[in-house]
């Protein structure tokens, strides 16, 4: 797209040189410069040519009326449309090359508007009688690098889908004030959007800090509770082990004491028959039965006594 713009500026330079030359003295010669410039296949911008004193001389009151229309024609090629040309009487008649060039320029202008580019609307705006003529013009614009587009003749309604357009139209001087107002309003909207985004960013950062502080507090509380639980488990486990040790030593003492007591009882009841075997019955004699008065005999078992 930039190449098309540079090519258009380069194509206009010879006509600018002619307009600034000493030979451009007659209105007829100036009108011929305008005709040749608007007929050239690669010229699509004309503001620089319009600003030359030679071209502006056609605006003078003493300029012949038959040539004054060429200045208006050049202005239409610079920022006007096909419908503008049709709406102004007494303008110079266009050649086939000029008609195609003005329609191509009009097509570029139409693509910048939000309205859908249907076949019907484009044919009316460009003054084309058939869809074949419209498709041929759009195809020529695509191959010339003026725009990137796709024809959709089978859609309902048939339309032209444009994706990009070359910056090849000049800006009308009277529209500069409106453009400045629109740019100022756009700048104000952009500033408001930036301020809103900054406020959202600050809110997100503040929420993130609060969430991080809350999570950190929760982690500290959780760690403290876990540490307390570990201390409690250690304290309970240590007391149980010490108690078991003490209990084990106490039980061992009791077992030893019981063993010593049993041995003492065995020694105390020993009557010389210890080697006869534990639990061996010994009859102490018939006279011993009188001690019970029932005729029963007293038995002595080694290691313990039974009565």
UniProtKB/TrEMBL annotation:
Chain ranges of the PCI domain: 1-165
InterPro entries on file: COPS7/eIF3m, PCI_dom
Pfam families: CSN7_HB_subdom, PCI
Bias (Acidic residues) ranges: 271-284
Protein name: PCI domain-containing protein
Keyword Cell inner membrane among UniProt keywords: no
Domain of life: Eukaryota
The keyword Cytoplasm is assigned to this record: no
Family: Belongs to the CSN7/EIF3M family. CSN7 subfamily.
UniProt GO cellular component terms: COP9 signalosome
UniProt keywords, alphabetically: Signalosome
Record field: transmembrane: none
Ranges for region Disordered: 232-252, 271-307
């Amino acid at each position: 797209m930039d190449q098309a713009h540079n090519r258009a500026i380069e194509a206009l330079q010879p006509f600018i040189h002619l307009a600034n030359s000493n030979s451009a003295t007659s209105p007829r010669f100036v009108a011929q410069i305008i005709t040749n410039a608007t007929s050239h296949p690669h010229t699509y911008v004309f503001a620089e040519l319009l600003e030359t004193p030679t071209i502006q001389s056609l605006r003078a009151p003493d300029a012949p009326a038959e040539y004054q229309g060429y200045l208006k024609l050049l202005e239409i090629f610079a920022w006007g449309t096909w419908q503008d040309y049709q709406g102004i009487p007494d303008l110079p008649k266009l050649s086939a090359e000029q008609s195609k060039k003005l329609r191509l320029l009009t097509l570029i202008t139409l693509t910048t508007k939000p309205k859908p580019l249907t076949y019907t609307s484009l044919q009316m705006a460009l003054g084309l009688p058939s869809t074949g003529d419209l498709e041929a013009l759009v195809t020529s614009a695509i191959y010339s690098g003026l725009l990137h587009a796709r024809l959709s003749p089978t859609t309902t309604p048939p339309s032209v889908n444009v994706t990009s357009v070359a910056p090849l139209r000049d800006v009308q001087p009277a529209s500069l004030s409106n453009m400045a107002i629109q740019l100022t309003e756009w700048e104000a909207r952009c500033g408001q959007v930036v301020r809103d985004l900054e406020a959202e960013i600050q809110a997100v950062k503040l929420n993130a800090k609060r969430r991080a502080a809350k999570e950190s507090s929760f982690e500290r509380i959780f760690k403290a509770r876990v540490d307390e639980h570990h201390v409690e488990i250690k304290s309970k486990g240590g007391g149980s082990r010490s108690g078991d040790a003490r209990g084990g030593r106490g039980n061992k003492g009791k077992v030893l004491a019981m063993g010593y007591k049993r041995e003492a009882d065995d020694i105390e009841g020993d009557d010389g028959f210890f080697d006869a075997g534990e639990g061996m019955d010994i009859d102490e004699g018939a006279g011993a039965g009188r001690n019970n008065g029932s005729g029963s005999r007293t038995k002595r078992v080694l290691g313990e006594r039974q009565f």
